[in-house]
Amino acid sequence: MAGQALLSARGLTRDFRGFRAVDEIDLDVAPESVHALVGPNGAGKTTLFNLLTGFLPPSGGRIELAGRDITGLPPERVARLGVARSFQITSLFPQLSAREHVALALQSSSGLGWRFWRSAKLLDRYTERADELLAMVGLAELAQAPSAALAYGRKRALELAIALALDPKVLLLDEPTAGMGLEDVDRTVELISRVRAGRTVVLVEHNMSVVGRLADTVTVLQAGKVLVEGPYEQVRADERVITAYLGAADAAR
Ligand SMILES: Nc1ncnc2c1ncn2[C@@H]1O[C@H](COP(=O)(O)OP(=O)(O)OP(=O)(O)O)[C@@H](O)[C@H]1O
Questions:
Q1: What mean pLDDT comes out for the span 80-90?
Q2: Ligand 1 mutation pick, 13, 23, 46, 85, max ligand atoms within 8 A of CB
Q3: What's the confidence (pLDDT) of residue 112?
Q4: Most exposed of 1, 111, 241, 246 (fewest Cβ within 10 Å)?
Q5: ipTM of this predicted structure
Q6: pLDDT band for position 1 (50/70/90)?
Q7: DSSP state, residue 146
Q8: CATH topology of domain 1-82+169-253
Q9: Which GO terms describe its cellular component (predicted)?
Q10: Tell me: the pLDDT tens digits for 62-78?
Q11: Which residues line ligand 1 (CB under 6 A)?
Q12: Alpha-carbon torsion angle 188, 248, 228, 213, nearest 10
């Protein structure tokens, strides 16, 4: 296992009834880097993401976090060890405010339990930190808004604040700009640039301009394998990538 990596995989494999979606992948995510996973549809990005976060058990191979074997641990254990993924919009509670969502996430990560909701002092402490996190993602003024009232881009920002509440060592973002208009994409790129300070981020992203602006390292997957890996400029100029990914994306436009 590479000594420098915070999160790494060796020979990581996942079969679905005889179909190999992730095929002996080696991956090293350097501390405090933004590492993008890209590739054409069906390349195995989501499956790899689910393996790294414990949402799927691997069929083979090994995953390490800071040198500790986390292979096969369930998602809540992986999350507790410091690998958090941004929650999906569908998991937000429509009536709860943005602040309440983040406060709940802070409380859940504190391990203090529900009784402490009775302590106004502790609750205040969560509120303060919740508001800091909301300010970080640009939602300061919407702290009291029910999540159902937030526009799409704002909901995604709230998901990010919830993930940050867990103070993860590694933050995994699954297509953070999916379905966004240009303005929200720019805002999200800015946001990730801001919150990445001192953190390690793994990002699945289809938008190559977003990848170019954020990623230190890009791993291109194709048919469950690593096709090319390196800095964005190097990867985007690689003939194999142009053929396999950028070419396909251009053709689809
Ligand atoms: N639960 C499953 N059962 C069977 N096959 C699956 C399952 N999940 C994924 N696959 C298959 O594994 C392959 C990789 O899928 P995956 O979703 O990981 O790709 P992806 O790179 O994330 O694609 P996309 O960009 O379209 O999201 C695909 O061929 C998919 O059909």
A1: 77
A2: 46
A3: 55
A4: 111
A5: 0.96
A6: very low
A7: B
A8: Rossmann fold (3.40.50)
A9: plasma membrane
A10: 999 999 999 999 998 99
A11: 16, 19, 21, 39, 41-47
A12: -20
Question: Is residue 246 pLDDT above 70, yes or no?
Answer: no
Parse the chain into domains and list their residue ranges: 1-82+169-253, 88-167
Measured from the Cα of 48, ligand 1's closest atom is 18
Q: How far is the CA of 21 from the centre of ligand 1 (A)?
A: 6
Geometric angle at alpha carbon 83, from 160 and 184, rounded to 5°: 20
* Residue 46 alpha carbon to ligand 1 centre in Å: 7
What's the chain's length in residues? 253
Separation of alpha carbons 53 and 72, rounded Å:
10
Atom of ligand 1 nearest to the CA of 50: 18
Token pair for residue 47?
A: 């499956």
Residue 38's CB is within 10 A of a number of other CB atoms, namely 28
